[in-house]
Amino acid sequence: MPQSRTGWLTILPADKWYLQAGRLPLIAGKGRRIVAHVGPFAQKKHLYVGLPPLQQGRIRTRVRWKIANDRLAIGPLIGILTVGYGMGFRGNRENFRDIFLSGKKLGALVYVFTPGGIDWTRQKIRGFLYDDKQDAWLEATLPFPHVVYNRIPSRKWETQSEVRKTLDQLASIPNITLFNRRFFNKQTLFHLLDGNPEAAPFLPDTKRLDSYARLRFFTLKHPVLYLKPVLGKAGEGIMRLDQHNERWRLRRVHEQRSITRYFSSLEEVWDFVKKRIRNKPYLIQQGIRLAHYKGRPFDIRVLVQKNGSGVWGVTGIGIRHAGANSITTHVPRGGSIQSPQKVLGQLFPKQEAHIMETVKQTALTIARCLDKELDSLAEMSMDLGLTKDGRLWFFEANAKPEKFDEPTIRRASLSNLIRYAQYVSRMKENKEAAAG
User: Fold this and answer.
1) Distance from C-alpha of 126 to C-alpha of 57, rounded to nearest angstrom
2) Looking at the DSSP assignment, which residues form a beta bridge with residue 11?
3) Which pLDDT tens digit goes with each residue over 345-371?
4) What per-residue confidence (pLDDT) applies to 322?
5) What angle do CA 87, 255, 334 make, to 5 degrees?
6) Quick one: DSSP state of residue 290?
7) Residue 193 contacts residue 199 (beta carbons within 8 Å)
8) pLDDT tens-digit profile of 148-192?
9) Confidence bin at 27 (pLDDT 50/70/90)
10) Strand ranges for 220-295 from DSSP E
């Protein structure tokens, strides 16, 4: 099997592609064109060999190339799928830029595209490349990607018919790897994990909130309850219920403010909750008394990803510290970022190393369990709770994690994303070669 080499690919605004690579001039002749096979459909693309002209708007990135059976192939191409129209595409552009720059460093061409930019007949995509000289996104006609990284920004967009159809079509193409197919459904997650003997011990008591009888039953079992939207994100819609001074206290967070209401009976609570949640599916969950740092609770955020060998690993661990009077630790809801070494070292000086190792193993256990049950997983973040006696609990997982602000975790996450894409592309190439 020929080894991949790395060269510089330059794309000019007129759709001229140049490849600078050590051995290519010996094959093609300097300044001459050579035919490359690009993308999962091995479409023919003429490349100029050698140094490209200086021109505003040119895009340069390192890319892997190899010659097998007298054919030049380059890649992988990684497409970030989002939504929107033309240059108005949605999503976290800072994140997209970082992924492009990581691809530039490690040898992959990264671009952004939307369902509306796909030409299924011609097998071409109108995508967007990042120009780091101008700090701007430039439109270009590109081959289909080898790997599609799903960054559809919300569940609402993900349920649109055009988006669903696009995801289905991309997933059906054997030469394309689509990963992180959809947002997680919290109810599905808990059902899957509850059936796994390795994961089940970490789950708080959790059921569908579907009746007053269910609410009353849980209040008899647990002193504190959380009501969570099945399809929620970033702490939105979460409520906390307990008894305070012989009244029922219901707290929720709106933006960064904590709103508290008191009720004299559980029936009144249920009437209010029903109106509040309307027809949205909700879970009711046992409240866990978390360990506190500086008088406020915290939880542990873990990022797990498949790496350049296709194996799950823990990319990073962070602490999310609840804001004053907040019922969640989410940063958009007033929480803050803390160092695990600082927090755990202060609260658990003799157990810190053991707790960190347990966090890693627990996160990997849950990731592997979900990977067996759900398609197309390659990364997830998860929230784990820690009690003052050192017990861990699983609260939720996110199939489309937001970027971690800790620099070391951020760098590692970008590297893993590119290297995993390179791995799956290489595996598919090997399968095709073996079949041929």
Assistant:
1) 16
2) 17, 59
3) 999 998 999 999 999 999 999 999 999
4) 77
5) 100
6) B
7) yes
8) 999 999 999 999 999 999 999 999 998 999 999 999 999 999 999
9) low
10) 225-229, 239-244, 247-254, 257-263, 282-286, 292-293
Collapse the DSSP code of 429 into the 3-class scheme (helix H, G, I; strand E, B; otherwise coil) and give the result. helix
The per-type count for the chain, helices as H runs and strands as E runs, is 10, 25
CATH 3.30.470.20 occupies which residues in the chain? 185-202+290-399
Is there a cis peptide before residue 76, judged by omega within 30 degrees of 0?
A: yes
Give the start-end residues of each E strand in 307-431.
312-321, 336-338, 379-386, 392-398
**CB 281: neighbour CB atoms within 10 A?**
16
pLDDT at 90 over 70: yes
pLDDT score of 332 more than 90: no
**How far from 71 is each of 74, 99, 237, 294, 345, CA to CA, in Å?**
10, 28, 55, 62, 56
Q: What's the whole-number mean pLDDT along residues 319-335?
A: 68
Q: Which two tokens stand for residue 185?
A: 């459904």
Beta carbons of 163 and 178 less than 8 angstroms apart: no
Residue 162 amino acid letter: E
Q: Which residues pair with 59 in a beta bridge?
A: 11
Q: Which amino acid is at 163?
A: V
- CATH no. for 185-202+290-399: 3.30.470.20
**Residues 6 or more apart whose Cβ sits within 8 Å of residue 358:** 392
Buried b (16+ CB within 10 A) or exposed e, 81-95: bbbbeeeebebeeee
Count of all residues that appear for the chain in the document:
436
Report the percentage of the chain scoring pLDDT > 90.
66
Q: Which of 405, 352, 359 is nearest to 382 (CA)?
A: 359
Contacts of 54 (CB under 8 A, 6+ apart): none
**What is the longest distance spanned by two Cα atoms in the chain?**
86
Contact 206, 190 (CB under 8 A): yes
DSSP string, 167-190: HHHHHH-TT-EEES-S---HHHHH
Structure tokens at 90: 């949605």
Query: For residue 17, what is the enclosing H or E element?
Result: strand 17-20
198-233 tens-digit pLDDT:
999 999 999 999 999 999 999 999 999 999 998 877
Highest mean pLDDT among 36-40, 119-123, 253-257 belongs to 119-123
In this structure, are residues 380 and 420 in contact, taking their beta carbons and an 8 Å threshold?
A: no
The pair of structure tokens assigned to 312 is: 């799950």
Per DSSP bridges, beta strands 379-386 and 239-244 are unpaired
> Each residue of 385-401: b (16+ CB within 10 Å) or e?
bbeeeeebbbbbbbbbb
